[in-house]
Amino acid sequence: MKTPRKLHIKSYGCQMNVYDAQRMVDTLAREGFVETARAEDADLVILNTCHIREKASEKVYSELGRMRLAKEEAARDGREMRIAVAGCVAQAEGEEIIHRAPAVDIVVGPQSYHHLPQLLARAERDGKAIETEFPTEDKFTFLAEPKPAAIRARGVSAFVTVQEGCDKFCTFCVVPYTRGAEVSRPVEKIVDDVKRLADNGVRELTLIGQNVNAYHGEGPDGRSWALGKLLHRLADVPGIARLRYSTSHPRDVDDSLISAHRDLPAVMPFVHLPVQSGSDRILAAMNRKHTVREYHDAIERFRKARQDIAFSSDFIVGFPGESKQDFAATLALVTQIGYAAAYSFKYSPRPGTPAAEMQETVSAADMDERLVRLQELIDSQQSAFNRAAIGTTVDVLFERAARNPGQIVGRTAYLQPAHVMASPDIIGEILPVKIKSLERYSLLGELASPEFSRGTAPAASSVSIGA
Ligand code: SF4
């Protein structure tokens, strides 16, 4: 029997990249690759890169420096290691990667990773292989062939890509350039994937896309289905108990999505709805295509549909032209909405985007100060939201054993980690948990259905978080 080749993937950034990395593993598994946790042991190392965060490409080049040393070490041991760069940095930088890091063998954009086996063969034959075009065939269709289909369950919670790319062209964002125009998968293909995942024990799905609520896939009736209609269809798949989706754009919140939240208990009452700024002037400069008022209106529509709904968001501070008043408007918006969580970043230009041509007006010191103030406000809201769970009983989907012996960890509807002392038999179950205390961002509690408990749970305050 042929010895399996070893594959190591390091993935950066968003959920879409996590999903893509899993599909790369599935694609290469057909070629006899097995995953290894140690890059040094691998025959193929893939860095699945992200271009969103600050200095993304510099971080990739410094990681490639480490990988070059591992490749040289492997060569001294008589082994051949190949290095591939995938994802959005690969798309943005293309051939430049091989010029700057000659140890790289393969550069593959996010639309082409299903060609990895061919690219690997090409690199073995010709030394290097680069593919960063947007191919005309459907990557998702390609990945589903031949049987067994590519998507594999990895636990009780899974991501499924339903939409990719974006046509919004926010001025700070590289996605429309690195991921291309919006494409939605047909409903039946998604349903097939979801049924397969459910058959393999998946209980919770997160539908992902760069602009997921712009979803407009072809339905079985030949018409274009919106995300809300897709959620209705997926809620009918036996075994699927929880549905989430990410990332949404405020402008694409339509009636079908609101009705999915109102009518489907499986659709979780936690929505990530990035706003980026609380100032209309800055939203216009960012080309976000909505106003602060329209964002509030979208939030209100969700709240009317489901009173227990909570929100998270993304913020950029220090966008070119952001004045003190603009930043104050962002703080005011956060105060008015009240978030359960949010991500905030200092603005940094992405080459090739319109904002990169704008004059930067906010000093580094002011950006630091604004970020601290915003994060303090968000942290206080998140802590208050988490503290409010103490004393209540909430449903938790249990995912895995925690590091602390005897502890099992799961997630609430709001993605808060919740720890209990219990038998591992509860993994995959959704059970009510009485929340006793909070440690950092994790809830500690005990099962409200004691038949699943293992022994006596220690006092919550004495249990430390091990996951
Ligand atoms: S909507 Fe999101 S993905 Fe699309 S351009 Fe704007 S920030 Fe980027």
Structural account:
Helix 9 (227-235) runs parallel beside helix 10 (255-263) and helix 13 runs parallel beside helix 14 (364-387). The chain has helices at residues 15-29, 56-76, 87-93, 96-100, 116-126, 139-143, 175-178, 187-199, 227-235, 255-263, 280-285, 292-305, 324-337, 364-387, and strands spanning 5-11, 33-35, 44-49, 82-86, 106-108, 129-131, 157-161, 163-164, 183-184, 204-208, 217-218, 224-225, 242-246, 270-272, 310-317, 341-346, 393-401, 407-411, 417-421, 430-439, 442-447. Strands 2-1-3-4-5-6 form a 6-stranded parallel sheet, sandwiched between helices. Strands 17-18-19-21-20 form a 5-stranded mixed β-barrel. Strands 7-10-13 form a 3-stranded parallel sheet, sandwiched between helices. It starts with a strand and ends in a 20-residue tail after the last strand. With 467 residues, the chain is an alpha/beta fold. The protein is globular, with a radius of gyration of 23 Å. It is built from 14 helices and 21 strands. The chain is 34% helix and 22% strand. Mean pLDDT is 88; it is low at 144-150 and 454-467. The structure holds iron/sulfur cluster. Iron/sulfur cluster (SF4) binds at residues 166, 168-170, 173, 175-176, 210-211, 249.
Summarize the structure.
By secondary structure, the chain is of the alpha/beta class.
Instruction: Determine the number of helices (DSSP H or I, runs of at least 4 residues).
Output: 14
Q: What percent strand? A: 15-25%
> Could you say which small molecules are bound to this protein?
iron/sulfur cluster
Largest sheet: 6 strands, parallel
Regarding quaternary structure, what we see is single chain
The end-to-end span amounts to 38 Å
Name the average pLDDT.
88
Q: Approximately how much helix is present in the residues?
A: 25-40%
Q: Radius of gyration, rounded?
A: 23 Å
Number of strands: 21
Parts with pLDDT < 50 across at least 5 consecutive residues: 144-150, 454-467
